[in-house]
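Structure, all two chains, one model.
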Amino acid sequence: MPSMKAIKRRRLTVKNISQITKAMNLVATSKLQRARANKAAIGKPVQATFDIVYKTVGDERALEQPFVKPREVKNTAYVLITSNRGLCGGYNSNVCKALAAHVKENGTSPVILPLGNKGRDYYKRRNGNLVDVPSPSETPNLAEAKQVADQLVKMYEEEQIDEVYLVYTQFFTVLSLEPIVRKVLPITPNYMRKVVGADLKDGEKWEDLGFFTKPEAKAESTLNQDVEFDSGIENVLRSVIPWYLSMYLYAAMASSALCEQAARMTSMDSATKNAGDIIEKLTLMFNRQRQSNITQEITEIVSGANALQ
Amino acid sequence: MAEAVVEKKVELRVIAPTSATDKSPYKFNKTVDMVIMRCTTGDMGILPGRVPVSTVLGTGVLRIFDEGAEKHIAIMGGVAHVSDDIITILSDAAQKPEEVNVEKVTADLKEFRRLYEQATDLNEKKKYSDESQRCQVLLEVAKSK
């Protein structure tokens, strides 16, 4: 059994750590509220953008255009969204594992764009084919997303990559966070119809990306109107695609930021609870040791007194 | 008995990278009477009941008409889509008149014109000419304050 001094020191250390985890839990709780508001605020612009994308790619003339027409896949780009800091349970490793599983299944050569230090470090250690992208700030913003989107468009046009997947974490509840791998390029018009959800065919279900609420069904008359492309469909598509990617990325970053705080909150909460259990155990151990020391001293005094008689 | 005439309006939504804040995700969001936007193919006016249209925007002034008043917003390229009396503009950069720092933009314009004169490379000349145009649009918008 360790000495009383050692137990006391350990108990103090655990107590100090539990104070830190408790503070981190409170900070994560307040950041979670902000991240939730941020994610809710961008729902409508994301929906508006997706609506425009669907109306553009839904046109027959778009099917032969780049970004819509699939080509032979040699290199697949994965945008991996993780956090910059740790202490958030399995949040980062889950999303990295989801990416690894998809790469194995897909069989093409992966090119990884890591948004977040944790994902970058994970693939640096495993010698992944990384592309340098700036680390995003804790609160996602559209300007940062647009930078990455422009880079992706450039790589796609130069045929360095042939398809693009987004790997992020989707928020369901605080305790239910799911790593997701979603294909964003080339765009499939049928899939976009399910995502937008205003023009569903019989038997089709709305695909919930977790970014916005289900739109109301529109009147038949508005659905059948053809869209004019004033500057030519290829120019409109070329301008719409960077926006589609940036909004998708922005929404995914906001969703991941929310998940990060939720994961940190729950892991810090359980860390604080565990620290409490350890402190309880150590206190018991300390008291037992103290008791046995006292008993031993009494025994020594009594036996010493007996020896003198 | 004469029926009441329901005045139709269009909803204008401007989204720009710098616009998303905690309060509103839009740079501008209001129902208005008419909008004139600068497209790459020329100016385009949008009134209620417009047939759906998608177009690419150039650098220019977005003119918004509502209840007899005219408002201006500087739009630095992007894309616009009109359907169901909703105009959605996705702009790379958008600035309202009150956000323009006139002194800085005037100084920038002078500098870009000087650099344009000095530049020999065609690409550089185009770059400085675009920047000068951007400054001119900002100054034009600032005047409407």
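Chain A touches chain B through 35 residues (CB under 8 Å).
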